[in-house]
Amino acid sequence: VGILQADDLVAKEQELLEKFTTKHSIIVDCYERKLSGREIENRVAPHQQKITALRQEIDNLVDYIDGAILGVGLHHLVVTFHWLMSNCSVILGILLIDCS
């Protein structure tokens, strides 16, 4: 009778240990996913700031181009367009380097 009770206790203890291990694994997985999500947000934030700054710069350039068309003439528009094209490639190159 004592051996059967000991076997039952060992089996119950093993079952409780398995349940605890499963719960522990689930908690660790959830924590790691949450941490990973924060890590991704932290890595994305600087790129979002750069994109916002670039959008503002583009808006300023469009305003300048509009002013060039209305007031200054075609020559300034062409110069501005060439400047915009050369700087866009540099800016995109920087973004591509930062993303990799």
Describe the 3D structure.
The chain is an all-alpha fold and 100 residues long. It has one domain (2-99). The protein has two helices and no strands. It has helices at 2-72, 74-99. The radius of gyration is 31 Å and the shape is rod-shaped. The relative contact order is 0.06. The mean pLDDT is 75.
Structure summarized in a few sentences:
With 100 residues, the chain is mostly helical. Helix content is 97%, strand content 0%.
Number of strands: 0
Helix content: over 70%
Order of helices and strands: HH
Shape: rod-shaped
Report mean pLDDT, rounded to a whole number. 75
How much of the sequence lies in strands comes to: under 5%
The separation of the N and C termini measures: 67 Å
Question: How many discrete structural domains?
Answer: 1
The biggest beta sheet is recorded as: none
Per DSSP, the total helix count is 2
Q: Which structural class should the secondary elements be placed in? A: mainly alpha
- Please state the oligomeric state of the protein chains shown: single chain
The Cα radius of gyration reads 31 Å
Provide the low-confidence segments as ranges.
none
Pathway: Protein modification; protein glycosylation
Family: Belongs to the OST1 family.
InterPro entries: Ribophorin_I (IPR007676)
Organism: Opuntia streptacantha
